[in-house]
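User: structure tokens for this one?
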Amino acid sequence: MESEAEKTFHLFAAFGDSSSSGSSINNKNFTKLCKDCGIIDGKTVNNTDVDIVFSKVKERNARTINWNQFQMALRELGQKKFREKKSDEILELMFALMKDKSPVASGVTKAVAVGGVDRLTDTSKYTGSHKERFDESGKGKGKAGRDDTKENTGYVSGYKDAGTYDQKNK
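Assistant:
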């Protein structure tokens, strides 16, 4: 049975990488875990400390660390963060910081409806050829909405008697 800290480790290990199994974590996600869980506080533990500890516990040519190496890294960071605590308490305190945490997508751009933006993006008000690019619900038709369909009938557009050639020449 895996602990809460181990669940958090696996969530962050797989974050942003669809091919990851979640069994090992890279430096970027390790730093994100430390930020999101409050291990990095900017005073006793900062980004540089996290990078140094990660490099120290990982194997020479590896890019990731496993759960055991992760625990070693937490112990080392915990010694900086909780200087007055005993070494056997440190890992428990670090796990407590990780409890019920999951990766948050920060810095994600949200749509802003300022001034004319909402008016310009309202597809129900489009006219002419632009209106043909969207269906009734306002969803874009993609390439079908952009392509001009050409009729290869041999007649110029707008010709009233199109298709009557064979009838006239009999």
